[in-house]
Amino acid sequence: MAHRRINNFALVLFGVLIAGCAYALIEHIWRLPAEKVVAAVYHKSLAVFYAPWLDLWKNSIFTIAFWCAIVLTLILQRLMPAKPDQKIFSPGFAQDLVWFIYQTVLHALIIATYVDLLTRLYAKNFSFLTITYLNQFPGWLRFLLAALLVDLLYWGQHYCNHKVPLLWKLHSVHHSQRELNFFTDFRYHFLEYIVRHTFLVIPFSVLKVEAPVIIAFGIFRQWYVRFYHGNIKTDLGPLRYILVTPQSHRVHHSVDPVHRDTNFGAILSLWDFALGTQYRNYDVYPDTGIQDQSFPHEKTVRLKSLLLTPFNQLLYPFLKTSKPGTFVAESPPLGSAGPTLLPDSAKPANPVISEGLTYRRAKE
Fold first, then answer.
1. pTM value?
2. Within 10 Å of residue 54's Cβ, how many Cβ atoms?
3. How would residue 235 be classed by pLDDT, with cut points 50, 70 and 90?
4. Phi and psi for 361 in degrees, rounded to 5?
């Protein structure tokens, strides 16, 4: 019941947030002359559709860093694979490559609309909340504290994605990948970007985190997460106590319930160690994915299927998969030893299990 209340509250909060943003946007547009509205739509369209494609080719695909990272990851996957029977150019890899192209536009759309609007709303109505106390510290210390804050906020947002059923439905799209690879970090539901940037933009504005910190962290994270999503067998030795590793993140993606709700870190593993969510067996390399067989997984490398499957996967969170007598999501508390499952005798023949959640029998 408590989790249902949390889910309902999240829905109401999300609805109020969207309604408020829509009202502010309409009110702002209504006051503008027609020619300014047309010009604004034109420039916004360029920012959303043309600029991302230009950036994709100019600053990603046609850069030495991009190809060096791919080649290095592929070499490591070949020399030390976590899952030896996984083909390098598998259906999962091909599907995530399509996600990489799609997300370039989808993420830019969120940045150019929602994030821009959220930033303007804060500057206009809530700038009095801004804390400038940190400005008295040296530049290097402000940079360090801000970087730690950014990583902690990513941890908190990721934790909520697993604990709030509504958010988990969106996040499960990312966890559906059964063949982790270089491009898996692009397999995200576009609505999850709204959740993520709400978690980040507001605290950034309140604490006045400087743009260079956000940009530097974003660039490093962008490349590092591609590395640890790879099919690579390494825990980075002593560095595992500081950084997220391919081994620790594979455990986070594990399909095995024993690994549920562990290893939420984005770059640093410090928060997981400090908050009791680090899985401390560093020798396991489990299979990944979610156990919900109704998820529309990619099954072929045919072009038509690769292009259309992401849209089916985007619809998945809104489809009702639980039926009376099956198991529905219920999250364990932070720091618990693990999920408490019903005994085998009480389970249906083919229970539906989703990563990141424990289960109780649904009411008839």
1. 0.72
2. 11
3. very high
4. -75, 130
